Amino acid sequence: MANSWPVRHFSQSNPKGPGQGDVPALLRRVADSIQELGPVVVQDLVMHEEITEDGPWVSLTIYFHPSEDPSDRGAGS
C-alpha cells in the first residue's frame, strides 16, 4: 500500500460585485490566508472562473498540509 496523508483545502474569492474578477487582489487575499495558517506546505492551487451578471468571478482552491518544518511556511515542495 502506498504512503498517504490527508490534504486539507479551502476556497476563496473576492467579494461579489465590483472587483470580483481582480486576480491580483485575489492572490494577495489568498497569500494572507495561507500565512495565517502557520507552517504549511501548499500542494496545489486551482483557479476557477464563474461568469455572472457582474462579469467574471474568480476563486482559488488551495490544497495544503501542515508542515513539520517551520521554515516551510507557505512553501510548496
List keywords for this structure.
19% helix, alpha+beta, 43% strand, 77 residues, four-stranded mixed beta sheet
Secondary-structure topology with pairs:
Elements (H helix, E strand, L loop, with lengths): L7 E6 L9 H15 L2 E13 L2 E12 L8 E2 L1
Parallel strand pairs: 2-4
Antiparallel strand pairs: 1-3, 2-3
Main beta sheet, described? 4 strands, mixed
Structural class per helix/strand content? Answer: alpha+beta
Task: Tell me how many strands there are.
Answer: 4
Q: Please state the overall shape, judged from the principal axes of the Cα atoms.
A: elongated
- Unreliable segments of 5+ consecutive residues: none
State the separation between the terminal residues, measured CA to CA: 23 Å
> How do the SSEs run, as a string of H and E?
EHEEE
Explain briefly what this protein structure is:
With 77 residues, this protein is α+β, with helices and mostly antiparallel strands. It has one helix spanning 23-37, and strands at residues 8-13, 40-52, 55-66, 75-76.
Structural summary, described in words:
The protein has 77 residues and is α+β, with helices and mostly antiparallel strands. It is 19% helix and 43% strand. It has one helix and four strands; from the N terminus they run E-H-E-E-E. The protein has one helix at residues 23-37, and strands at 8-13, 40-52, 55-66, 75-76. The chain has a four-stranded mixed beta sheet with strand order 1-3-2-4, covered by helices on one side. Strand 2 (40-52) and strand 3 form a beta hairpin. The longest helix is centred in the middle third of the chain and has 15 residues, at 23-37. The radius of gyration is 14 Å and the shape is elongated. The mean pLDDT is 89.
